């Protein structure tokens, strides 16, 4: 068939619908992940600086 055909084969319509649905799901998951990351980052920054525990010296060998 020529590329300038007015009608598309049925297989293309199904694959386009599947692609559109998959992209919608992926974009929704990415947006949810980004919102969660920003929420957790804001909560972590609200707590203030966290001091690291002092490092233990290694035990001396005899």
Automatic annotation (TrEMBL):
<protein>
    <recommendedName>
        <fullName>Transcriptional regulator</fullName>
    </recommendedName>
</protein>
<feature type="region of interest" description="Disordered">
    <location>
        <begin position="1"/>
        <end position="21"/>
    </location>
</feature>
């Amino acid at each position: 068939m020529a590329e300038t055909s007015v009608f598309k084969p049925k297989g293309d319509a199904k694959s386009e619908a599947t692609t559109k649905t998959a992209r919608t799901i992926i974009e929704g998951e990415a947006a949810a992940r980004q919102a969660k990351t920003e929420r957790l980052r804001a909560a972590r920054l609200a707590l203030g600086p966290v001091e690291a525990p002092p490092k233990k010296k290694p035990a001396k060998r005899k």
